[in-house]
Amino acid sequence: MFTKSSNIAGLLFILIISSVTVLAFQGLIGFSQRGADLALLEDSYFHSILLFSIKQALLSALLSTLLAWPIARAIYYYPNIFFKQTFLSLSLLCFVLPTLVLITGFVSLLGLSGFITPFLGEDWSLYGLQGILLAHVYMNLPFAVRAMHLQLQSIPDSSWILARQLKFSRWQRFRLIEIPSLSANASLIFGFICILCFNSFAVVLALGGGPQSTTLEVAIYQALKYDFNIPEALTLAWSQFAIAGVFFLLLYRSNSVPWLSKDSTEKRWIPCISTATKGIYLLIYTGTFVFMLMPLLALLPGVLAANYSIDLITDVLQALSLTLILGVLSAVSAMLIAYCIMLPIRNAAQRGQLRLQNTLQWLANHTLIAPAMVLSVGLYILFLPLIDLDQLGIIFVLILNTLLILPFAIQQIRARVLQYDNDYALLYQSLKLNFQQRISIEWGYIKPIMLSTFALVLLISMGDVAIFSIFGNDNLQTLPWLIYQYAGSYRIHEASFASAILLLVYFIILLKIERAKYHA
Amino acid sequence: MNKLITLCLATLISSQAVIASAATDTLTVYTYDSFVSKYGPGPKIKAAFEKDCNCELNFIAAEDGVSILNRLKIEGTKAKADVILGLDNALMRDAKETGLIADHQQDVSALSPTLSWSDKQFVPYDYGYFAFIYDSTKISEPATSLRQLVDSDAKIIYQDPRTSTPGQGFMFWMNAVYGDQTNTAWKQLASHTVTVSKGWWEAYSMFLEGGADYVLSYTTSPAYHMIVESESKYKAAQFSEGHIAQIEVAAALNTSSQPELAQSFLKFLISAEAQAILPVTNWMLPVLENTELPEQFSELVTPKLVDLSIETAVTERKNWIKDWRSNAAK
After folding, report:
1. Do B59 and B29 contact (CB within 8 A), yes or no?
2. Contact B210 A108 (CB under 8 A)
3. What burial class does residue A483 get, using C-beta atoms within 10 Å of its C-beta: 0-12 exposed, 13-18 middle, 19+ buried?
């Protein structure tokens, strides 16, 4: 399809991101001059936290995916449902919510003196596995809904028309059209959410109720930061890598392209649904909408109570602009790199080299499962004696941000670009188009997905705190960092205000990009 | 023409030399990020010190006290800092093991006798007692001892000793009070613990949202609410067994290129001027005896210190954490 140069470009990037991970681990190993502490693997404490991490991740992912399904169907079959665009934009918001908003929101609604707690009966306690699942479902369900909805939308019109001609019953439509279109993606979504929840830390601890809710991340944090016990940290990091990697391998199989006819981005034809079904869908939809809005609304009292001053506003606006600049830079880089990395993968797919394709995909996405804390501390240790990180740290923040959001970018654009190749590769190869013509045609096809992926990775990169706290320069503060700085010095209301501003900006960005997508 | 150019260059170079020699010395201080925040002590301390020292004070902020120590361990002798500020008494031993801490040459006789400070390398600059904070409009009869709190069924939030210094302080506290019966005490406490959070602000913000009856914080927390928010309902519970203190310390590094400046900064930290700034920006108690405090501070509880040597605590820490995580699990 493309020339060899595109292969080289993609492979080069894959090499670069892999070497960053290797460097990070080397930083840790080199410093401690010992490898991993293997004795830890026999410790029963380690086993119990491993089991718990896996259990809460699997359950969260299962709940999120299962519950997302009826909601995605509801929106799909009832396209004119109220505020649909806002709902879908809000879905992405829940995915990138700052921990402060999540924790205070849930406690104010469902905690001891929560707003909703009196309606929940005597035995209700937010804390424990149920709290963790609730928070994880809140963060990931909307994302799953959106992904599934997108997948459902790609069911070609011709499938439905054919189904009607063949007089399929509801069950047959469900079994033969819906399920195949969702199944490949569903396992991907499941695996993705699983990995995210596996790496979750502050939320799990805050809502978990005690040391029984310890995940692997806590152990890594403790080993790397509080004990500075690098051999132990290495063992934990390798274990996390291994397990998340297994999840990943099991679920990230090559997508099968939807059968029957071609994909189309315009939605014209879906089956009619009865009024009763409409009512049920409306109920499900409204319930979810309210669920998503509530913790955000719980922010309001804090925002209203904040100590407003010119200082507060200027600090927040300054932090906001830095966040936006860093975010846009990371997002743009990530999109470009993701596109380049997809090139050799697409070539492999075209030539039917499945194993090569899978290997490249796995390598490209590995930063999703590499513990961010290990990456940042490893690189910190490696580079601190070599360069002035206080001045140049911001470059590391950019690089690491880009690396960490890259898997999200790749995962989102993958299906679409592979689809494009399936449809048009032979055509434009035979037309012998030049580079510019090829790009302009391809851009028309992939523009919607590129824009919505850009929105997603922009949001995620704007939220990343952990790296900044290690590499960041105190004179340049990002908004999430400012939020936690306020929270850490009693100024919880000001932190709520800053969070509200961040969420507002997220929302505006999302709406603008969604609008641009639809005027494609 | 050539002579003109040479003359200009010579003037330029010599003027640069003059400017260079008039440039001020820089004192680099590693500290933690809430110290240098706009609402924290950093800006005022910097302004006050630079007024008299004819130098430039440069703060480099790490996430927290532990991160400062980690940075020292990584950098070793290449550390950029002249002074480190923000470790606490529990971290002193580890810090000394790096071999980088210089002796302080300060006179600590004017410091508060409660501290009975005898360390030759670290200088304390503020301290606070860990205490449980409660809402006095909701609880009219707070617990008066740690044992009473543990045995009651009051809902409590505290921090994880593995990831938080207040949490660690609480673990020391429990062990100091209960000794051999700490494991049973943990089990008893677990029965009415709401949750254990990663860090201080998660617990405190959950408490402010009404998530618990008591939260582990500092005796000075009510001062913030009284002074900044004019809110006096939050109070600290005073326990008869005594409380654990967290003493924040600073020290000069022996790799510093500005040893006299570093020492004068340490002297400044325990001077009346700095000690007056710290309580209302860092929300901790001053170490200098007879420092004038805002009147709201007189409403704070002044507990006694529990009997526990920090050396024992630091030595036993790992075992105590193991005991905690198996017994405090529900």
Report:
1. yes
2. yes
3. buried
Q: Which residues of B touch A107 (CB under 8 A)?
A: 205-206, 209-211
Residues A223 and A308 in one domain: no
**Cross-chain Cβ contact A384/B202 below 8 Å:** no
Best of B205, B215, B314, B319 to disrupt the A interface (most A CBs within 10 Å) is B205
Contact B60 A114 (CB under 8 A): no
**Residue-range domain boundaries for chain B:** 24-127+247-292, 128-245+299-327
Distance CA A121, CA B66 (A): 43
CB A348 within 8 A of CB A21: no
Q: Are A381 and B74 within 8 A, CB to CB?
A: yes
Chain B residues in contact with A29 by the CB 8 A cut-off are none
Tens digit of each residue's pLDDT (9 = 90 or more) over B197-211: 988 999 999 999 888
Q: How do the pLDDT tens digits run along chain B, 330 residues long? A: 677 766 656 565 554 544 444 468 899 999 988 898 888 899 999 999 999 888 999 999 888 889 999 999 988 888 989 999 999 999 999 999 999 999 998 888 889 888 889 999 999 999 999 999 999 999 999 999 999 999 999 999 999 999 899 999 999 999 999 999 999 999 999 999 999 998 899 999 999 988 899 999 999 999 999 999 899 999 999 999 999 999 999 999 999 999 999 999 999 999 999 999 999 999 999 999 889 899 999 999 999 989 888 899 999 999 999 999 889 988
User: Is residue A208 domain-shared with residue A238, that is, in the same domain?
Assistant: yes
Q: What is the CATH number of the domain that holds A400?
A: 1.10.3720.10
User: B24-127+247-292 architecture in CATH?
Assistant: 3-Layer(aba) Sandwich (3.40)
Domain that holds residue A58: 36-258+274-298
Which residue of chain A is at minimal alpha-carbon distance from B282?
A489
Partners of B199 on chain A (C-beta within 8 Å) are 202, 488
A179-218 residues touching B, CB cutoff 8 A: 201-202, 205-212, 214, 218
Nearest by CB: A112 against B40, B73, B212: B212
- Contact criterion met (CB < 8 Å) for A484 and B60: no
Count the residues in chain A: 520
A41 touching chain B per CB within 8 A: no
Nearest to A107 among B40, B78, B206 (CB): B206
A263 found inside a domain:
no
Identify which of B66, B93, B69 has the alpha carbon closest to the alpha carbon of residue B81: B69
Question: A60-87 b/e with 16+ CB inside 10 Å = b?
Answer: bbebbbebbbbbbbbbbbbeebeeeeeb
A29/A43 same-domain check: no
Cβ atoms A51, A243 nearer than 8 A = no
CA–CA separation, A397 and B30 (whole Å): 20
Residue A103 contacts B where some CB pair is shorter than 8 Å = yes
Most confident of A257-266, A387-396, A484-493, B141-150: B141-150
Q: Which residues of B touch A215 (CB under 8 A)?
A: none
Are A399 and A319 members of one domain? yes
Q: Which residues contact A439 (CB under 8 A, 6 or more apart)?
A: none
Cβ contact (<8 Å) for A488 and B201?
A: yes
Would you state the pLDDT for residue B120?
Answer: 92
The pLDDT tens digits of the residues spanning A174-231 come to: 888 888 888 777 888 888 888 888 888 888 888 988 888 888 888 888 888 888 888 8
CATH entry 3.50.50.60 includes domain B128-245+299-327: no
Q: What pLDDT does A247 receive?
A: 79
**Amino acid found at B204:** Y
Cβ-nearest to A212 among B59, B61, B330:
B330
Q: Does A255 touch chain B (CB under 8 A)?
A: no
User: Is A268 within the bounds of a domain?
Assistant: no
Alpha-carbon distance A210 to nearest alpha carbon in chain B (angstroms)? 5
Enumerate the β-bridge partners of residue B218: B130
What six digits make up the tokens of A21? 């991970």
Residues A308 and A217 in one domain: no
